[in-house]
Amino acid sequence: MIQNSTNCSHRCGLPRPRLSLLVLILGLLATPLAAFAQGVLIDIDPNRHYRLPRPIIIPQPPSPPPVSYRIKQLEFNATLTDQVARVQVSQTFVNTSQRTMEVCFMFPLPYDGAIDRLTLMVDGKEYAAKLLSRDEARSIYEGYIRRNRDPALLEWMGTGMFKTSVFPVPPGAERTVSLRYSQLCRRMGGLTEIFLPLSNARYTSKPVEKLSIRVAIQSKDGIQNLYSPSHDVQIERSGNKQAVVKYTRSNVIPGHDFRLLFDVGDQAVGANLLSYRPINNEDGYYMLLVSPEIKAEADEQIRKNVVFVVDRSGSMNGKKIEQAKGALRFVLNNLNKGDLFNVIAYDTEVESFQPEMQKYSESTRKQSLGFVEGIFAGGSTNIDAALTTALKMLTDDQAPSYVIFLTDGLPTAGETSANKIIANAVRHNAVRARIFNFGVGYDVNSRLLDKLARECYGQSQYVRPNEDIEDKVSRLYERIGAPAMTDVAIEFELDGVKVEDGAVTNRSYPKDAYDLFTGDQLVLVGRYKHPGTARVTVSGNVDGNRQRFRFAGDLVKDSSDSSLAFVERLWAMRRIGEIIDKIDLEGRNAELIDELVALSKRHGILTPYTSFLADDTGQPTDTASLRKRAGDALESLDAVDGRLGLSQRQAKASFQRANNANQFGGGGLGGGGARVLDLKSDKQVVLNTVHSVAGKTFFRRDETWEDSTITEEQRKTAIKVTRFSDEYFKLARELGKDASRYLAVEGKLLVVIMGQAYKVE
User: Fold this and answer.
1) Inter-axis angle of helices 642-656 and 446-455, nearest 10
2) Do the Cβ atoms of 357 and 393 come closer than 8 Å?
3) pLDDT: which is higher, 117 or 474
4) Is the same domain home to 504 and 550?
5) Nearest-angstrom CA–CA distance, 416 and 87
6) Which end of the chain, C or N, has fewer beta carbons within 10 A?
7) Beta bridge partners of 24
8) What's the mean pLDDT when you consider all of the chain?
9) pLDDT tens, residue by residue, 480-519
10) Judgement on whether residues 201 and 95 belong to the same structural domain of the protein
11) C-alpha torsion sign, points 653, 654, 655, 657
């Protein structure tokens, strides 16, 4: 960053430090979207090679850095009122070397006027900051990169910079740096975005011990959609106008910046449309967020019908039956006034709490709890009779109906054919009840449960032997306990698009009908062929009446940057889940396998059946060879029970229900590679031979990071660029902000930018 220690001392207004100078960069925005808010220590001594520390380095540097550090704790606390964020960032870092570090604290600027009331504290002492222009900052970045032969800082070029005076960090000492600022958050597609940068915290010699994020949102209007495309967050909502979003992890290497989107409004249903089209002669990608208003009072909730069907066969004896009874109690204690319900227990025989649905009241609640206490395990497993009994009870088509079905075994009594059990369930499901299956343990027919869920509009979940049945069931019921709109349908209209032009959108997921629940959110992703201003109609049943809500949104013609690339990646995850489901339930075919391989390769989303793509040993890449390898791996789907059967259906569901673009890894270098289920060990493994950067995926081939989209023709015409040369920096300046992030990838690189391939060595 600083070209030499003399210059830094002069600019900081302090005497030249006695020891080598390290610079701590705290970025507050590398792009117009982001704020870098954690430090990076940089040794700028021109007589000693220094690289930013990496807990995972590919390839390994020739020697470890003489001075290093680790980030011990990183904590964000933000309060967002309408569009203004007040943020406090606290970072504790430790000098892990044997030398005292003399550091400046520096951070890039987002854009003029974006930050207000900025305060910087180091262990309680306030430090003054000096503003450097964009040109000054670029010179500092480039000088450091050239001298230390470390491309990491390239991604931060192009912004201005604040810098503080020098302070020491003795060997083994900790320093806590706190930053407070206010910022006007960006709006896009009707959504407000708060962006908290984490990815540069990967420059630490060890994983971050504690990472904590808390965002409190307050609004004068109702908060509707609330979505993080980057992290699996916990959302707490207390009414319409307040929400708290939390994310906490221990011993992690942050690989992705934190992003949170929300909108406000006063409609009963809120919707927002985001679109991304990186290649304007191909279909684009869209995401539609739909949320109902929060209804705080139980008597405001839509009436529903619920039947709980619990397995009491002999294999449920002991801990499992007690957990199942606990789950029953939870549901029965959380029904709403006006709900109709029943409880069915089955083994060889089927026994009901009452012969017909009961209206929920204090009296029926107590009676049903007494029935639950009398459930004991013993006998065989008559799945067909239990489901038939439950579905025949459901005759009210004016209210949403749900069957919560629990089993821990294969069908062993009555009808035992899986296909006939499913056919009977479909035939008796006269009110389109949603069936939510819970497979307990390894002895269930997971394919039967998955197909039952698909044919009856529900989903399957699996409870491993070391997991708690009550916890799994209660989590589901907390989500579906308050339906707001049922049998939801989404329609898109676009001016100028005729019937013969085909549908406006295609390959949208989730498929078919779905329900909206209070406090829940529908995340619909799909593709579109024609750009323009779309009219979106959300319709569904509310208390037996069909209601419609209309919204407008843009399907863009082309996207100039990768800020919404998560839409494409999330669609690819869902599509991969759909392909695996089709192969699982309908059988393998060459077209589906080819598409699975192509999507996995392009987006770096590895599956248990395409993990071979991450091999760095020069494996054959022709379509026939890849199809055969994937086809061989897909044979493991023949297992319908046991640990293998269950783990594969869980993995498939993870793709189908993916809700953030980073769910399967693919983070920036040093932040962890792609995560994939290893079928042999039944564990998630990280493959550091594949990474995603700014919407691109790179595979490591023969010691080169290779763009997954490169063609043979582009490979032949690739322009050679020497890393750290004038041409290298010129490309970073002139090809857009994403280009700097690609060119910051370490080692040999083969990348396609704006249709031209570049070979960087």
Assistant:
1) 30
2) yes
3) 474
4) yes
5) 59
6) C
7) 41, 105
8) 84
9) 888 888 999 999 999 888 888 888 999 999 987 688 888 7
10) yes
11) positive
